[in-house]
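Section 3.1: Structural characterization of target chains.
Under the original work plan, the team committed to producing a structural model for every single-chain target entering the pipeline before any wet-lab resources were allocated. The record below documents one such target. The sequence was received from the expression subgroup and is listed exactly as submitted; it comprises 162 residues.
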Amino acid sequence: MRVLGIDCGSERTGYGAIESDGRTHRLLGTGTVVTSPKRPFEVRLLEIARALRASILEYRPDVVAIEEVFYAVNVKTALKLSHVRGVALLAVAEAGVPLAEYSPLEVKSSVVGFGRAEKHQVQMMVASLLRLDAIVDSKDASDALAIAICHANRMVIAAAVR
């Protein structure tokens, strides 16, 4: 199964694609869409949408996994994140690819084994699970890969329960 994970952010949106049988994961590719806060927000959303559409076309995922909205102290930040998620959800729907959503707690628990894990712990486990020589430099891309791995892990559990 091919899974594309997306970690939404208004300045940095990470994405990562894996091939997985649910037990063994292989990196297909990863990247980060970086937008300038100096540009109009609608232009930044367009840049993110174009990049996500291109990644969906490039990796041809069987499913896209994305992080659910989480509580944010800053309302403006939460609203911007919601706009970016909306753009990501639209790109996925346009492509006709199934979507799975996971909370940050689910992702960290699935990948690290601890729901309150730090970013560097997630990076280290992603590198380990994908058998990489080094961590993925971009925390956003690493988080996106963690979301993809979470989905692959969940599919194994779901299949075992059936």
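The beta strands are 2-7, 12-20, 25-34, 63-67, 99-102.
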